[in-house]
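Still learning. Any example?
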Amino acid sequence: MKRLPVLALTTGDPAGIGPEISLRAAADDELRRLCRLILIGDASVLEGIRAASKVDSAILAFPAEQAAAVIGNSPRDGVIELLDCRTLPHAIPLAMPSEQGGAASFAYIRTAIELAQSGIVDGVVTAPVNKLAWSLAGVTQPGHTEVFAEETHSDPYAMLMYSDKLAVGLVTCHQSLATVPESLTMERIVATGELLAESIAKIRGGKVRIAVLGLNPHAGESGLFGNEERRIISPAVHELQRRGIDAEGPLPPDTAFTAKALARYDAFLCMYHDQGLIPFKMVSFDDGVNVTMGLPFVRTSVDHGTADDLAGRGVAGITSMIAAAKLAARLASRGD
C-alpha cells in the first residue's frame, strides 16, 4: 500500500476561523485518502471549537517531544491527530486579535517548520494568521511567506497564488507601494520568473508560458509614465528568454488578464502584491492556494484571512483549505 504524504497543518490564529477550517479539513473523508494531516495547535482551542465546527471525530493530542514516534506509527482510524503546542492553557476570546493569539499562531508555524526540516513531515499547510496579533506579540515578519523563507534560509523565494484558472507570481510582496519601484531589480525579476516557471511545471507539467507585467500604466507607454519597463523589466524578460524560459512582456497590466490573455499564458509574473492578487481573488477566491516558492519543502496555504466575523459560528468555507492540502499532497507525493 502506497504511503500517504504527511502534512503538518498549522491551525492559525486561535481567535479566527483557522481552528475550525483545520478541524473540518482533517475530518474530510476525501482528503484523508490523499494525505495524513497532523494539526499543529492547542488542544484547549481545538476541543473548544470542535462542537461548533460540527466535527464528530475524536482529537488525539500529543506533545511535541512525541511527534517523531506518533507520526512514525500508522495513523489511527477515525481520529484527528494534533500536536499540542500547549501555548494556551485555555481558549481565548474569538474575533479579538491579541498578543496571546499572535504568539500562539507563530509558535505553531515554527513547530511545523522544525518538523519539515527534520523530515518528520513531507510538507506544511497553513491556516490564516492575524498580522495585528503578530505585531502585538512582537513578531516582526510581515507574513507567512517571509517567516518560512527566513527560518529556512531560502533565497530566492517568492509567493505564488495558484488555481486551475489562474496562477500569479509576485516579485515583491508584503510592502508598501511607495517602496516597490526601489525594490525592483533585474536580478529579482529573473529569479522570481525562474521560480514561477519551475513551480508551474511541477504542478501542471509541460512547457510553461509566462506573461511578465509592467509596473506602470500602459507598461510605461514608451517611457512617458515611467522608465522601469525599459530599464529593468525588459532586460529581465530578455534574460529569462536567454535561460530558456518562454516569457513575454512587459505587458500593460490593465489588459494582462483578459480572456484572451488567460488562454495564452500559463502564469503571470506581477511586480507587486495587489497587481496579482486583485485579479486572482476575483476569479479564484474560493479555491485559490498560496504557495511559497523556493523552500526546501512544500508549503501551501489558504488564500484568505482570519475572517473574525465568522469565527466560532461553524459556517466558514473550507474550499481553499481543501485545495491547499490537496496541492501540498500532490507535490509532496512527487518528492518535490
User: Anything to note?
Assistant: Residues 49 and 74 are 26 Å apart (CA to CA). Residues 99-117 form the longest helix (19 residues). The chain is about 40% helix and 20% strand.
